[in-house]
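Entry:
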Amino acid sequence: MKYLNWIINTPVADSTYPKYIEKIKTKKYRPAVIGAVYCKDGAYVSVQASCSHYCSPRYNYGKWYEVECGFPSVIPPVSWRPFAEQWNVSIIERIKRFIRACNIVSEWATQPSDYFRTYRREFTRMILPPPRTTVYGYMPIENVKEFIKLHKGEDTKRSFNENKQRLG
């Protein structure tokens, strides 16, 4: 779990600091937003920790013991349920939300292509189960490690390679 440990233990470069890019290139700091932690079976989850995320402590330097996770590629373990912004939203409620979004956006969508492009995210959120389309705040590191172990361990090489652009 080298990539996860790197996220937990590496301080964040303050984006208001003029030499933000240089700080990241030194590898002693990392950007505030980090991409996904990939597992060996292909599952992934986005993990972030900084002063602007749902994590503890709320500073730009770790060691973080709670992090913000979001939009896992598979339904996470039930132990994640208390940390979810939304876990169980009925299909009827999801359809109602989709219709409300359609009504709002249809007022300014001028072309059919704009219409469907705009609704892609709402439609995806309606179809996918809520545990995959939500944010998990103040998630204990042990729960993230549990997710990784359930999916055959962390794919460290892929995690670093996929997020290379963000890492400078």
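The chain has two domains: 2-87+134-167, 88-131.
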